[in-house]
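ARCHIVE CARD
Drawer: 12
Card no.: 0347
Subject: one protein chain, sequence and derived structure
Cross-reference: see card 0346
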Amino acid sequence: MKFGRGRAVVLGEAAMLSAQIDSKGRAFGMNYPNTDNRQLALNIMHWLTRLQR
């Protein structure tokens, strides 16, 4: 959302923007196969910085 002259992103799940492995060796977040979490993070950064493609 836009906030004044800036922008803000609010996410309800922090693990989606992390690359982690749990105590049993299972990957989640950006490490989990076949998810678009990496693209989401990149899209967020582009939008926040107003990067033009």
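Annotation on reverse: Residues 2-48 form one domain. The CA atoms of residues 20 and 30 lie 7 Å apart.
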